[in-house]
Amino acid sequence: MENISHTTPRVRYCLYARKSTESDEKQALSIDSQINEMKQIVERLRLNIVCVKQESHSAKASGKRPVFAEIIKEITEEKYDGILTWAPDRLSRNAGDLGSLVDLMDQGKLIHIQTYGQTFSNSPNEKFLLMILCSQAKLENDNKSINVKRGMRARCEMGLWPCRPSTGYTKSKLKEQKCVSVIDQERAEVIKQMYEKIGLDGWSGNKLHRWLKEIDFKTEHGKHLSLGNLYRILKNHFYYGRFEYPKNSGDWYNGVHEPIIDKKLFDIVQEQIQSQILEPDQLKKNLLLQRS
Q: For a surface tag, which of 58, 126, 248, 285 has the fewest beta carbons within 10 Å of its beta carbon?
């Protein structure tokens, strides 16, 4: 590793550490570890560090990191002209932020980027290498996103709901069924009664909401249902064995989970909900007609 800090004037470095909480960066060093490792580089190469900045944000999308944006601004204002960071992908995993760095190099305002194992200065070959390494990080992100979507679709085709189970279901505790939504014995019966009280007994949504409060019904996470969440449950096809993923995509799948209700009761409830919505509107029209 070559020490360029002997040049005159000395490069003024900003030490930058970043770690995202997203799963694709779980293997990256912690921020403290990055800073400690880079301080060793500072001592070995006798670098001139004028500031230390850190943040916990993903670098997937351009313009989403306030501290990185601050660094770009301060380099433009010539407060420092070098960056010390653990690896190129700490700086950028997208084309927009990479372009900002290269532009500053072209303008002569960013003289040098020092990482743990590499140096990048304003030379065609080193800038090209920097762009390759950051573009490779972007390619890895894009491929992971594609693979995740592909995996989700594969699970749906197997009849497995790929997200958190709906209220009335829970994740199976059996290792061989870890992706299967199973009946939540504590709540499923109440979900069934909710459908029956609306569809068979003619209850209104407000009456049902009051009843749930009276029996102190709570979700698996210990929360009462809001009126909006109550209607989302009553309109959820999952409870009779079908589901759409992603939402509003038009892609429907037959689930392997055990239904809580049948399709017939679900359809009755939809008619009841619709009629409850239409009736108040009709009353308003009648009142307007009487006043005219």
A: 248
- pLDDT average, residue stretch 118-138: 87
The CA distance from 110 to 83, in Å, is 8
Q: Determine contact, residues 246/239, Cβ cutoff 8 Å.
A: no
Q: Tell me if 69 sits within 8 A of 36, measured CB to CB.
A: no
Q: Look at the chain and count its residues.
A: 292
What is d(CA 79, CA 51) in angstroms, rounded to the nearest whole number?
Answer: 10
Q: pLDDT tens, 175-205?
A: 666 678 999 999 999 999 999 999 999 999 9
SS (H, E, C) 153-173: HHHHHCCCCCCCCCCCEEECC
The answer to whether the CB of 159 falls within 8 A of the CB of 152 is: no
How far apart are the C-alpha atoms of 43 and 180, rounded to whole Å? 54
**Coil, helix or strand at residue 183:** strand
Average pLDDT of the residues of the chain: 86
- Angstrom distance (rounded) from CA 247 to CA 90: 34
Of 237, 247, 243, nearest in space to 270 by CA: 237
Looking at residue 148, its pLDDT comes to 74
Phi first, then psi: give them for residue 119, nearest 5 degrees: -125, 145
Q: Do 120 and 112 touch, CB atoms closer than 8 A? A: yes
pLDDT at 26 over 60: no
Residue-range domains of the chain with CATH: 12-143 (3.40.50.1390), 169-278 (3.90.1750.20)
